[in-house]
Amino acid sequence: MKSNLFYEKNLIEGDNPKIEEFINHLFLSLEHEINYDFDEELIEKSYYNAYLLIFNALQLLKFKNKNEINLYLIKAAETLETLSILNHPKLNKEELIFDSMITYYISNNYPRAYVLSKDNENIELPKYKEAIFIFMNKDFHKLRNLILKEINSDDYNEDLLIKKLESNEISNFDALEKMVSYSIFKALNNVLNFLLLGDNVFIDDSLYSLDKYKNISLIHNLIDYWWVISCLEIIIKELYENSLWNQLKPFYSDENEELNNKLTNYIFNYANRKTPIVELWPSQTSAIPKILENDENLTIKMPTSAGKTFIAELLILKYYMQGNFYNNGKVIYISPFKSLSNEIESSLKSNLNILDLKISDFYGGFDSNEYEKYYFEDLDILIVTPEKFDVLLRMNPHLKRI
Asked: Are residues 39 and 79 in contact, defined by beta-carbon separation less than 8 angstroms?
């Protein structure tokens, strides 16, 4: 259906309110299992309208801020998701799910994209879309295996493709599709290299290749490739902008190469996990300037699950990169409950183990002893309950002046 998209533009002009009302009714009827008389013409119009919204939004990116067009992208994603639930014989359910997911993703509606991906982990897609699907799910080990398998297969061997073209075993169109798919695999492979090594050259190569084949796709009317590559470019640019490599650049020292190596290993350690962490959330990136500019008291107010704990970890990292632990400096992390203290201790030990810091929780009542005083002196990071912090203040009056 999608190949007739530009021809179908006239079909939907002036019908947007009617289409929106239809999609709302369709969604409610499917959600509540209500019998609804599906209008075939409106289903078709809704389908084309969704893609036209996406295409127009992608074109407007040249002139407008992405935040201004996210509303159109979300509307298109919702339409495609609803149509995928319909199981219409003329519509490809799996591709509708993928197209809805990537559109949610570029509109920064990450929670909806995440739910769609987790609900549809086993959908069958063309290999290039499967690779992007895995990439959005941050399953980088699986993605690397898929990419290596594809780019080393005979399907994308340039010499074999030329021979097939000469013998008419494959059409020019099919050969071009192979080349565009191959460019997507190579671009994603470069992004994975960047996430592990932090070298911007990998991102530059990835975006250069994608831009080249995006234009080739448009010239040769490979519309599906054109818009998917356009979305992938947005995802890669935002991933780079929010990546730990980019966001933590200001943490690097101008003088101490040993500390810089530790920070590099810290970022690498996160990227190489089974469940990697390679970027900061928008709520966290907005806090970075405050962390860097402020050496005094700092209060951060954020919603639940917005990433406050990781911001606390970044404050510890800043303190470390300033060399404070080498001067017998300490970090005291106050946690309201003993059970939470245990969780924080486990998390910090796992995340900061590369920095060789001594970390322990420090809990109990209002009493203290000589052992605890010695224990305090030996630690770099203490996780304490409010009651134990009161003990620390009485044991170490100088802390009140910090």
From this structure: no
Chain centroid, CA 16 distance in Å? 32
- Does residue 172 share a domain with residue 80? yes
Amino acid 5: pLDDT: 42
* Structural domains in the chain (count): 2
Taking residues 99-113, report their average pLDDT.
94
Q: Which long-range contacts (CB under 8 A, 24 or more apart) does 225-230 make?
A: 225/128, 225/177, 225/180, 227/51, 227/54, 227/55, 227/58, 228/102, 228/128, 228/129, 228/132, 229/180, 229/184, 230/58
Q: How many CB atoms lie within 10 A of CB 101?
A: 27
Q: Long-range pairs for 110-116 at CB < 8 Å and ≥24 separation?
A: 112/77, 116/81
Coil vs helix vs strand at 330 = coil
Amino acid symbol at 73: L
How far is CA 281 from each of CA 175, 236, 252, 287, 310, rounded to the nearest angstrom? 39, 15, 20, 10, 10
Rounded to two decimals, the pTM is 0.85
* Cβ–Cβ under 8 Å, residues 83 and 46: yes
Mean pLDDT, the chain, rounded, equals 84
CB 340 within 8 A of CB 379: no
CA distance 153 to 291: 48
64-96 per-position pLDDT tens digit: 787 888 988 999 999 999 889 887 888 899 999
Last residue of a domain, one of 213, 245, 277: 245
Q: Which DSSP symbol is given to 279?
A: B
Are 265 and 200 members of one domain?
A: no
pLDDT tens-digit map of 358-393 = 998 776 655 565 666 666 778 899 888 888 888 777
pLDDT of 192 over the 60 cut: yes
- Domain ranges, residue 351: 261-401
* CA pair distance 180, 46, nearest whole angstrom: 29
Question: Could you write out the DSSP letters of every residue in 10-32?
Answer: HHHTT-HHHHHHHHHHHHHHHHT
Please report how the helices 257-271 and 338-352 are oriented relative to each other, as an axis angle in degrees rounded to 10: 110
Neighbours of 74 (CB within 10 A): 18
